[in-house]
Amino acid sequence: MKRLLIGAALASMLIELSMIPTMLGPGDFWPAAAIFAVLFGVGAWWASRSDAWGPRVLLTLLFAVEVLGLPGYSRTRPVDWLTQGAIGIASLVGLVAVVGVSMAARRARNTATA
């Protein structure tokens, strides 16, 4: 499950990076995509290095913002549908992976104290 979590975070990072060139028009805020890409990358790196709760919390927040924000994004071009669908799927997979990693960590902690 940890590999799935890291993979979902890296996929989300790449999708966010791919969205930047499409967000250069008026009314678009491309720095948000850049910030999210960096945060997804940090979360993936951190999750690969640590079993602590910090990376799981960061990635949960990022994935949740992406999923909850999807209904509010405008879709005027096919590329919008494609990238927003991809980030939605990656975020849902990431949320499921966070739950799986958290359950495994809890199980390991309970086994170690028993």
SSE order, one letter for each helix or strand: HHHH
Percent range for helical residues?
over 70%
Please, what is the average pLDDT? 92
Distance between the termini: 23 Å
* Helix/strand/pairing category: mainly alpha
> C-alpha Rg, in Å?
15 Å
The figure for the number of domains is: 1
Low-pLDDT stretches are: none
Biggest β-sheet, characterized?
none
- Quickly count the helices: 4
Number of strands: 0
**Based on CA inertia axes, which overall geometry fits?**
elongated
Strand content: under 5%
Molecular structure report:
- The chain has 114 residues and is mainly alpha-helical.
- It has one domain (2-113).
- Helix content is 80%, strand content 0%.
- It is built from 4 helices and no strands.
- The chain starts with a helix and ends with a helix.
- 25% of the residues are buried.
Give descriptors for this structure.
4 helices, 80% helix, mainly alpha, 114 residues
Topology of this structure?
Elements: H1 2-19, H2 30-49, H3 53-69, H4 78-113
Summed up, what is this model?
The protein is an all-alpha fold. It has 4 helices and no strands.
